[in-house]
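Bumping my old thread because nobody answered last time. Still need a sequence for this structure:
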């Protein structure tokens, strides 16, 4: 084959161009510090780079954003729960102090003020937020647990209970047959105290049964009581009324709901001011017989449903939508329903908020209000405060009557004062005994609430510990993926510099060689 100058020229140009392409490739690698600048440079490296970059991005999202956010949420939650635990512990301390029968009036005053302060602190703790989101309100992170201000808003509430909610309480009767109330003596003076015609024989105590609803100051609409009995052929729950009907009796009426219930074993009486349902012995026995049938997993035959209405809310009252099935209306007049699935008689999944903190791994960060901020905590404290105030008021009445006796000389008046004083002292003795028993019982009740709070703290701490382990693992995974990504994409600068220098020398040499070769042609040999 004859090699012409044209062939040599074309071959030299091709080789020069190849050397230039190599030089360009190496200089591009030096500039970008990457092995490939487009997929066609090396498809295998490019595909692996896409996968590893995705892994690095996900690991960075988990490690640098999701995990710190979840950690902060858990820290805020745990801090609030720790505060709740301290408040409940302080309450138990006050209850223990109050159960001491030798307390003076000033001691009781201190306990009273402490309980009021602690009661207000409990639910304000529930409204703690993280980055503008309430941490105990489930999915409704824009809604506080309690009402921030006094307001009017109508709710229809259905509270689901079992017979554990029925309790026996002592009622001390301080009224006479004419309707006079011994406690009104504190508003009398020497000229008209005799109008309160209450004697020692009028002071009695009765044991009654009640259900204390989660709210007081309810609307006067009569509540409905139903029990769950089973399911029909279509799977719908069957309910039936409890008792023969409910009668409304206001707290100021005489006879009181407690007296009526003690006299009528079949009666159920509703006190809207205190949010109590007081029942007679027969109704109590019937409701205590309700038991869940273990053979019917989808029905709780021991469930008692009480539907009632409330429109007036005080600052600090708990919002019912976080606890119960209820309905209300918005500003446009549209009906809003909450938690209606509670009434289906099946286990309802809690409003769990989870964060993605790893590859195919999530962790729960929230604790819902019903797990720790039980409405009965405040109701229990309110009862205790009421019992303390009754004792304090009777002590003041007793002191006032004793002062009047010191300066009185009329025998008839002295006899009347002594009669009133005997009635007051008996009522005071009964009230002190009731208060002490309530304190003793309240210690175990508050200990139960404290156990719930500590369980919530434990669960929160367990999640934090798990999250810490995940964080360490994600840190290692992130480092591993970044190393693999670098090994796959990044060049060795030293090696690339040597190759580039070699390519430059090769390119220069090829130019020089081509220049010398192309100077000679066929005419030089003719």
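Sorry it took so long. Here it is:
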């Amino acid at each position: 084959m004859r090699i012409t100058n044209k062939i040599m020229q074309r071959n030299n140009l091709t080789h020069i161009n190849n050397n230039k392409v190599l030089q360009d490739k190496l200089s591009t690698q030096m500039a970008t510090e990457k092995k490939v600048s487009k997929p066609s440079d090396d498809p295998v490296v490019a595909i692996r780079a896409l996968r590893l970059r995705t892994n690095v991005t996900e690991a960075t999202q988990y490690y640098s954003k999701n995990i710190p956010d979840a950690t902060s949420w858990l820290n805020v939650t745990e801090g609030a729960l720790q505060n709740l635990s301290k408040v409940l512990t302080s309450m138990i301390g006050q209850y223990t102090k109050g159960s001491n029968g030798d307390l003076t009036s000033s001691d009781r005053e201190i306990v009273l003020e402490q309980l009021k302060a602690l009661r207000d602190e409990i639910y304000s703790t529930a409204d703690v937020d993280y980055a503008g989101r309430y941490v105990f309100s489930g999915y409704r992170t824009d809604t506080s647990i309690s009402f921030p201000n006094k307001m009017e808003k109508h709710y229809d509430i259905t509270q689901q209970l079992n017979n554990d909610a029925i309790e026996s309480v002592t009622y001390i009767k301080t009224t006479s047959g004419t309707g006079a109330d011994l406690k009104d003596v504190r508003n009398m003076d020497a000229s008209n105290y005799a109008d309160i015609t209450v004697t020692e024989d009028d002071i009695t105590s009765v044991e009654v049964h009640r259900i204390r609803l989660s709210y007081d100051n309810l609307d006067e609409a009569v509540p409905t009581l139903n029990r769950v009995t089973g399911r029909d052929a279509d799977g719908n729950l069957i309910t039936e009324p409890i008792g023969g009907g409910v009668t409304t009796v206001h707290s100021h009426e005489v006879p009181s709901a407690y007296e009526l219930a003690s006299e009528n074993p079949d009666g159920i009486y509703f006190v809207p001011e205190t949010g109590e349902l007081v029942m007679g012995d027969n109704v109590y026995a019937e409701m205590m017989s309700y038991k869940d049938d273990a053979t019917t997993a989808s029905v709780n035959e021991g469930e008692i449903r009480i539907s009632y209405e409330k429109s007036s809310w005080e600052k600090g009252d708990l919002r019912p939508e976080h606890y119960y099935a209820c309905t209300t209306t918005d500003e446009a007049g549209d009906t809003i329903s909450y938690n209606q699935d509670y009434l289906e008689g099946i286990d309802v999944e809690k409003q769990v908020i989870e964060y993605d903190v790893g590859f195919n791994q999530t962790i729960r960060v929230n604790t819902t209000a019903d797990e720790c901020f039980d409405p009965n905590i405040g109701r229990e404290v309110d009862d205790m405060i009421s019992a303390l105030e009754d004792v304090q008021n009777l002590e003041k009445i007793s002191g006032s009557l004793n002062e009047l006796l010191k300066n009185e000389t009329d025998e008839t008046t002295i006899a009347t004062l002594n009669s009133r004083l005997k009635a007051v002292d008996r009522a005071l003795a009964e009230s002190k005994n009731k208060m002490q028993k309530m304190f003793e019982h309240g210690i175990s009740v508050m200990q139960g609430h404290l156990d719930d709070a500590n369980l919530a703290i434990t669960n929160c701490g367990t999640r934090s510990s798990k999250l810490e382990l995940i964080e360490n693992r994600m840190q290692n995974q992130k480092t591993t993926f970044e190393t693999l990504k670098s090994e796959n994409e990044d060049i060795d600068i030293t090696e690339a510099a040597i190759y580039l220098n070699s390519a430059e020398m090769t390119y220069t040499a090829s130019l020089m060689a081509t220049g010398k070769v192309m100077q000679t042609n066929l005419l030089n040999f003719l």
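The CA atoms of residues 101 and 489 lie 81 Å apart. Let me know if any region looks off to you.
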